[in-house]
From TrEMBL:
One of its GO terms (biological process) is arabinogalactan protein metabolic process. This is Hexosyltransferase. The lineage of its organism: Eukaryota, Viridiplantae, Streptophyta, Embryophyta, Tracheophyta. Its cofactor is Mn(2+). Residues 1-10 have a biased composition (Polar residues). The keyword Transmembrane applies. It comes from Cardamine amara subsp. amara. Residues 26-103 form the DUF4094 domain. InterPro entries: DUF4094, Glyco_trans_31.
Length: 346
């Protein structure tokens, strides 16, 4: 029996086979290593970019926090905007303006005459929308009209009916007054005052302010619409007081403050007058006279002057705070029985 021949590979053959197998296993490893490097570079790049973004975001947040509005006090705000000096200057200018106005330097002030002659008095007779017949009665008695009214103004006396505007501006009430004024030319219409019973205490402020802004006079006089005047007697009284500054003239009185709601002359702010509930001394509202500087005082301070339930007590409260000379003249007590009085209840 013959044996099969066997072949033993030589060294060179074994070496060739080994190199072929190693080449076949190294290719996938290289590829894997390449992709690993690429992945590492990608991750490193992203981490670097994220770190830069975090820095940018941190800076933005820091700036936003630094720019966040802070709660400032009024003093700090004035310092920030540099308003402290401006505020002080405004106060100084207001004081200078007040002084100038009190001395008669009023913007847009009109004299009674084109030649600049000072008037003796401006007389304002209160009136209302329903007082047409009463106005005609006055025009037919003590109050001049037409040419006689103009001649009286040449003597230095201006007389006007004083009335405000309707709550419904431009309605028939306003139109009737405008038509009557166009025909008669004897009204002082208070454009900023609403003619209503509850607004009556404020009317006196508007009257004195409008009067001093339209006419330069020694005296300014408020008269109720139920009062007849002895015009020549009043002019004589005023002539005797000419040149008297800070004069507060009228029929002086005081009296009990009515605290019971619903009663006549009820004063809603009665508690301000003390436990005795008595009014301070003041001129009765039927007819009262203020000298030029006191009327100017009302005009300058009208925005801050307190009014009470009645115009005469309101004026009396304003006069307490200034250097007014109180002149109690019984001739101005319209309800008295004196023969020489210059007014009477109509």
């Amino acid at each position: 029996m013959e044996s099969l021949p066997t072949t033993v590979p030589s060294k060179s053959e074994r070496r060739g086979r080994f190199s072929k197998s190693s080449q076949s296993t190294s290719k996938p490893s290289v590829i894997m290593a390449f992709f690993s490097c690429v992945a590492w570079l990608y991750v490193a790049g992203r981490l670097w970019q994220d770190a830069e973004n975090r820095v940018v975001i941190s800076n933005i947040l820091k700036k936003s926090y630094d720019q966040k509005p802070k709660v400032l006090t009024v003093e700090e705000k004035l310092m920030v905007f540099g308003c402290k000096d401006l505020e002080r200057r405004i106060v100084e200018i207001e004081m200078e303006l007040t002084l100038a106005k009190s001395q008669g330097y009023l913007k847009n002030q009109k004299n009674g005459f084109s030649n600049g002659k000072k008037l003796l008095a401006v007389i304002g007779v209160y009136s209302g929308f329903g007082s047409h017949l009463r106005r005609n009665t006055f025009r037919g008695s003590w109050m001049p009209q037409g040419d006689a009214l103009r001649k009286l103004e040449e003597r230095g006396i201006v007389i006007r009916f004083v009335i405000g505007r309707s709550p419904n501006r431009g309605d028939s009430l306003d139109r009737k007054i405008d038509e009557e004024n166009k025909a008669r030319k004897d009204f002082l219409i208070l454009e900023n005052h609403e003619e209503a019973q509850e607004e009556l205490p404020k009317k006196v402020k508007f009257f004195f302010s409008a009067a001093v802004q339209n006419w330069d006079a020694e005296f300014y006089i408020k008269v109720d619409d139920n009062i007849d005047l002895d015009l020549e007697g009043l002019i004589s009284l005023l002539e005797s007081r000419r040149g008297q500054d800070a004069a507060y003239i009228g029929c002086m009185k005081s009296g009990e403050v009515v605290a019971e709601e619903g009663n006549q002359w009820y004063e809603p702010e009665w508690w301000k007058f003390g436990n005795e509930k008595s009014y301070f001394r003041h001129a009765g509202g039927s007819l009262l006279i203020l000298s030029k500087n006191l009327a100017h005082y009302i005009n300058i301070n009208s925005g801050s002057l307190k009014t009470y339930a009645f115009d005469d007590t309101s004026i009396g409260s304003w006069m307490i705070g200034v250097q007014a000379t109180y002149i109690d003249d019984n001739r101005l007590c319209c309800s008295s029985i004196r023969q020489d009085k210059v007014c009477s209840v109509a």
